[in-house]
């Protein structure tokens, strides 16, 4: 099986990443061979290596394209919505039952503990996600939606940690009432908003 006749590079890359996401989700990193992914994509090993250099490259590539990114999806759909509202909606969605692709992040975290190549690639990917979050927080601060005294880097780290934690501990392991979870999130997100003075909230002193 070689490169499909007439298929362009982007299409082939998408096929490989789709196959990688499916195979890694089903078998885990250590249970997956490059040949398994090539076979699932209908390609030869040599054709696969024209696009990806290793299993680690495939895993992080699949995570980048098919991993769960609810906040980024919401920002794309509702660009004018406040950052605080987007964070609240994302937090509420994190604890819902996950599809198999959500566990790509878990596979990457586990593999990174035992494979230096995965750890290096995951570190770069995490830095990309953190950088995107930092920019989002700074935009919210510039628009007066988030407290300018907060560290964007710290908020980004908190968001990444919450996403990782809810991926590892889903409702199958430990569940919580939707209303109680939402009330907690409201308190957390409200604490990120600017402190308003009495005059700003209509209180005369």
From TrEMBL:
Pfam families: TetR_C_11 (PF16859), TetR_N (PF00440)
HTH tetR-type domain mapped to chain residues: 10-70
Ranges annotated as DNA-binding: 33-52
Alphabetical UniProt keywords: DNA-binding, Transcription, Transcription regulation
Keyword Metal-binding belongs to the record: no
Annotated transmembrane regions: none
InterPro entries to which the protein is assigned, alphabetical: Homeodomain-like_sf, HTH-type_TetR-like_transc_reg, HTH_TetR, Tet_transcr_reg_TetR-rel_C_sf, TetR_C
Listed GO MF terms: DNA-binding transcription factor activity; transcription cis-regulatory region binding
Keyword Chaperone belongs to the record: no
Name of the molecule in the record: Transcriptional regulator, TetR family
Organism, scientific name: Blastococcus aggregatus
